[in-house]
Design a protein that fits this description.
Elements lengths: L2 H10 L7 H6 L6 H7 L1 H9 L10 E7 L2 E6 L2 E2 L1 H14 L3 E6 L6 E5 H17 L8 E4 L4 H13 L3 E3 L6 H11 L3 E5 L1 E4 L2 E4 L1 H8 L7 E5 L13 E3 H5 L11 E2 L3 E7 L7 E6 H15 L8 E4 L6 H13 L3 E5 L10 H9 L3 E4 L1 H10 L2 H4 L8 E5 L5 H11 L6 E4 L33 E4 L11 E6 L9 E2 L3 H9 L6 E9 L5 E6 L3 E4 L2 E4 H9 L4 E11 L3 E10 L1 H5 L6 H14 L8 E4 L13 H8 L15 H14 L1
Parallel strand pairs: 4-17, 6-7, 6-8, 8-11, 11-12, 16-17, 16-18, 18-19, 19-20, 29-30
Antiparallel strand pairs: 1-2, 3-13, 4-5, 9-10, 14-15, 15-23, 21-22, 22-24, 24-25, 26-27, 28-29
The structure holds 5'-O-[(S)-ethoxy(hydroxy)phosphoryl]adenosine.
Length: 656
């Protein structure tokens, strides 16, 4: 698409109407908004009927002790049974659950619902033999392979909450998560494939588990065949434990509020928060939103969510949502540019993908690579496109719709969080229109608003903070082991309402535009990163006295990590300067401690940091420096000269 066409489209069509053919057959009908508004809890009861309950609930919602919610109180169900067995029992065992596409690219597997049921039962039997019981936590640190889904569902089947740790996180990050939720079993693989080469996972697990004496078993999938260290008595090969296990396993029902999983996410302090999701409400939220927002049809669609299972998007929209709805999905192990930059579009064409869900950062990357690449493939099967993880800039939205969706597939820009468990704000395909850059309105059953500092709703045309005004089934129940922090983080800023941490505005039509985080959380390639967590990591380096981190605007990744550090006296005395070696050392230090995704794009050595009189770092000013803007108001600084000092130091060092 030429720049001129893009700009014409951007100006001509600020609003895209839903295509008629979609409207006629859409899963969710237009009266849903009204029905949900009139009888919100009745609406959520209807949605709960998408699942098979071993025992029906007595009460839809218990909100007597806010912010501690209970949904579908008294109900009982088994998550894995709902994702797998019931589809087989209904005669759909032959339907494909996953077209798995591996890297290297000749490595593929087709897994039917019947296959998946067998695998999940075998893994559940194996885990039970290894002593895993309901309530035990199991950590999962895996590449994007079918065994990851099987492991999660096997845990869920046994009522053992899983905590999946993204494979890109470091050994230290894994240690913290295992310890925080006291996991006793870790499921991992020897490694995975990334960009055409095997990468290792087991060494990180060995390093992590060395600091977690309570971990008694490490179950290891052989994926790459690379050599691994082996701890007799602790390490067990997946194929030894699982392959010979029985394919029969009786799924025991669990209470609706039984913990399903803990997912760690970055918060405003250094320590990641363990977001707790429970069974009934979370599954209802995933099933309903996947069905309604992606309009997914089990007998027609091939759905592909290109996130990693290690993030919440993968949990809700690769694993639970699509499987609950009995839909066929693509599961892709690799990256977009291996072995070539058209890989995604080849996968879409090969599998006739009809629904694609990905992040704006990927779309911007494809846009940069040019239209010629997707044009080489037949993408006509695509009928619906989704976006998640960060605000999508209008250029990327319009390009996605045109170059990938052929100008006909609507884009659903879906706003939600690890904490919300399910999509909360999004247009509905076939029902509502979309505006490039806006997530539009809360979906039926969800209530949101934009409020000012005092908590008053802002009028249309104004901005403020995004809040959720009513509890919803897939909401987090608490932070693992820390009810107080749960209350404090989400429910104290605007009492009675959930504070999302995002800035937002309502346009003249009342539609919602997300404006990014208002706290110390950055969004890098759609991944949440905590400024304080990276600062703590930098300060733990022996040469660093102080550090401040900001997210600076980046054309591709949305934001990029930029760090400002003050060196220790001792380092300076030793003649340490802002050398390339030192910068590389500090960047690697962060990658080692947190993971490569947290590695700063830029580290700047400065003599001082801008602080208020009470000692708070004014990141806003550093952000101005990082984004090469004129520095804003400095009057609240304890020392108003500091910014001059920083900038002259930087221009000197860059001139040198
Ligand atoms: C941001 C990912 C704008 C937002 C599902 C939120 C978005 C954070 C959107 C949650 C969107 C997510 N438009 N911003 N459509 N979706 N965000 O927990 O800042 O990894 O608070 O969950 O991503 O990130 P998380």
């Amino acid at each position: 698409m030429s720049d001129q066409t893009l700009s014409n489209l951007l100006h001509e069509e600020r609003r895209f109407e839903p295509p008629d053919d979609l409207a006629a057959e859409a899963n969710l009908k237009a009266d849903a908004y009204e029905r949900a508004a009139q009888d919100r809890l009745g609406f959520w009861e209807e949605q709960a009927d998408r699942l098979d309950w071993a025992k029906r609930w007595d009460t839809v919602l218990d909100w007597d002790n806010p912010p501690f919610a209970k949904w579908y109180v008294g109900g009982q169900l088994n998550a894995a049974y709902n994702c797998v067995d019931r589809h087989v029992e209904a005669g759909h065992g032959d339907r494909v659950a996953f077209h798995w596409v591996g890297e290297p690219d000749d490595d593929t597997r087709t897994i039917s619902y019947a296959d998946l049921k067998d695998e999940v039962c075998k893994a559940a039997n194996a885990l039970a033999d290894l002593g895993v019981q309901a309530g035990d936590r199991v950590a999962i640190y895996m590449p994007m392979i079918p065994e990851t889904v099987v492991a999660m569902l096997a845990c869920a089947r046994l009522g053992a909450p899983h905590t999946v740790v993204f494979g890109g996180f470091s050994a230290d990050a894994l240690t913290g998560r295992i310890q925080d939720c006291d996991a006793r079993v870790v499921i991992t693989a020897d490694g995975g494939y990334r960009k055409g080469a095997p990468s290792a996972l087991k060494p990180n697990v060995d390093e992590a588990v060395a600091k977690c004496p309570d971990v008694r078993t490490v179950l290891v999938v052989r994926r790459t065949g690379q050599d691994v260290e082996w701890e007799q008595g602790r390490d067990v090969w997946w194929h030894d434990a699982v392959d010979s296990a029985s394919t029969t396993h009786d799924p025991q029902p669990f209470d609706s509020e039984h913990p399903l999983y803990v997912m760690y996410t970055s918060g405003t302090t250094g320590k990641p928060k363990g977001i707790l999701h429970t069974t009934g409400g979370y599954l209802v939220g995933c099933a309903y939103t996947h069905w309604g927002i992606f309009d997914a049809k089990p007998d027609k669609d091939v759905y592909w969510c290109a996130a990693d299972i290690g993030w919440v998007t993968g949990h809700s929209y690769i694993v639970y949502g699509p499987l609950l709805n009995g839909v066929t999905s693509v599961l892709y192990e690799g990256t977009p540019d291996t072995p070539f930059k058209g890989r995604w579009w080849q996968v879409v064409a090969d599998h006739k993908v009809s629904i694609l869900y990905c992040a704006p950062t990927a779309i911007r990357t494809f846009m940069k690579w040019g239209d010629e690449i997707p044009q080489r493939f037949d993408l006509s099967s695509l009928r619906l496109l989704g976006s998640v993880g960060e605000p999508i800039n209008p250029e990327a939205y319009v390009w996605y719709r045109q170059a990938i969706g052929g100008g006909k597939a609507p884009v659903v820009d879906t706003w939600w969080q690890t904490e919300t468990g399910m999509i909360m704000i999004s247009p509905l395909p076939g029902l509502t229109s979309g505006k490039p850059g806006s997530a539009m309105t809360p979906i039926p059953g969800v209530s949101a608003d934009v409020v000012d500092d005092q908590g008053e709703p802002v009028p249309d045309g104004s901005g403020g903070y995004l809040v959720l005004t009513e509890p919803w089934p897939a909401m987090l129940r608490t932070l693992w082991g820390d009810d107080e922090r749960y209350q404090e983080t989400y429910w104290s800023r605007f009492p009675g309402r959930y504070f999302a941490g995002d800035g937002a505005k309502k346009d003249e039509d009342g539609d919602i535009w997300l404006l990014g985080r208002v706290d110390d959380v950055m969004n890098v390639s759609g991944h949440r990163m905590s400024t304080t967590e990276i600062e703590s990591s930098l300060v733990s380096h022996p040469k660093v006295a102080e550090a401040a981190v900001v997210g600076a605007a980046d054309e591709t990744t949305g934001q990029a990590v930029c760090a400002f550090v003050i060196l220790r006296e001792s380092a300076l005395e030793d003649g340490e300067t802002a050398s390339d070696e030192l910068i590389a050392e500090l960047r690697d230090h962060v990658a080692k401690q947190i993971g490569a995704i947290a590695k700063p794009r830029q580290v700047m050595v400065v003599p001082e940091l801008p602080k208020t009189r009470s000692g708070k770092i004014m990141r806003r000013l550093l952000q101005d420096v990082a984004e090469h803007r004129e520095v804003g108001d400095v009057t609240t600084l304890a020392d108003t000269q500091v910014m001059d000092l920083i900038q002259s130091g930087l221009s000197k060092s860059s001139a040198e």
